């Protein structure tokens, strides 16, 4: 007789279905002596909620005709997730998020708000998932495994940035000029480039303002581009490197 699923939470309560023949009128289902709650019964199946337990156990069905042999069932520890990286991404979706922790090997779903996504299991300590398209804002992030649920997480979806103006508009080819950049959706800035070269340093002061220190660059006008977890945008004007 098959049992599905063959794994469940140590806390019990996992819906389990046992299929076979001559199962009508089942009077009990035990997981190594612990009674399961019967929720449905037909001549070919018994549905139950597993009791609490640990490790590998045998599930047995009892009817008026006797008791079946044991079916293997394994209790899985609930997941623990201390790290989600990155913790924000583009509202357009498609970003890869890495979730690390413990007891993740049986992960079946990761919910971003009301949207479930099937994860890729890398190991018992790591899963990855591609974000869905979602309106900007913070949503709950819930990891489902056969051992239980971890729901003490959040993920922030970010609209693409816009860069409107910066000052000063010129600086020396040696770099080192502090440039003040304003726009929208800048709080999650991950890079600022001048002509493709990353700023020596930058700081997001608010959602509409960042500062960046120019890198060395050859003479000429170059685009100023800001990249955030929501996307990238270049200022409408260029920055001019002078002697």
TrEMBL record:
* Source species, domain of life: Bacteria
Name the UniProt record assigns to this protein: IPT/TIG domain-containing protein
- Source species, please? Streptomyces pratisoli
